Amino acid sequence: MATSSEAEAVLFDLVDLYDRAYQAAAAELSLSSAQACLLGRLDERRGMGALADELGCDASNITQIVVRLEALGLVTRERDPRDRRARLVARTPRGDEINRRFAAAFTFARTTVGRLSPHEQDQLTALLRKALG
After folding, report:
1. Where in the chain are the domains?
2. Which helix (H) or strand (E) holds 80?
3. 88 and 47 Cβ atoms separated by less than 8 Å
4. Model confidence over 83-108: pLDDT tens digits?
5. How far is CA 107 from each of CA 11, 24, 50, 55, 110, rounded to the nearest angstrom?
6. Which residues form the HTH marR-type domain (predicted)?
């Protein structure tokens, strides 16, 4: 039976491998992992403040990432019609294509979970939900 410290070590290894694979997939497209992450959150227009809250970072960090993505032609910014002080961010068609390519390149989760039987996948899902509270 695994101890809590063994489970923590395995989880740490998994998170580390996930992070490295995420960074590598982003780098294949000349993006940082933060840029790829933000691009993936834009299935619809989003406010900069909402993105900062969701990603757990400062609004100024989101602004820097968005400025870089905008310079690459991957996102646009526009004034929020409900609050002229706020900006909405949306992917461009090129941003949609890069996001699709990133999703195809980032295979870590699919590959890792794919090694498990359907029953094991169900068990893993239940255990992860329980661990997340």
Report:
1. 13-132
2. strand 75-80
3. yes
4. 888 889 999 999 999 999 999 999 99
5. 18, 11, 27, 22, 5
6. 4-133
Cα separation of 77 and 52, whole Å? 15
Q: Give the whole-angstrom CA distance, residue 69 versus residue 31.
A: 9
The whole-angstrom separation of Cα 100 and Cα 77 is 20
Q: What's the CA gap between 49 and 78, in Å, rounded?
A: 14
Q: Are 67 and 75 in contact (CB under 8 A)?
A: no
Reply yes or no on domain 13-132 having CATH 1.10.10.10. yes
pTM here is 0.85
Contact yes or no for 39/32 (Cβ under 8 A): no
Mean pLDDT of all residues in 27-36: 97
Edge-to-edge strands, sheet with 83-91: 46-47, 83-91, 75-80
Those residues with Cβ within 8 angstroms of residue 5's Cβ, 6 or more apart along the chain or in another chain = none
Burial 1-22 (b: 16+ CB within 10 A, else e): eeeeeeeeeeeeeeeeeeeebb
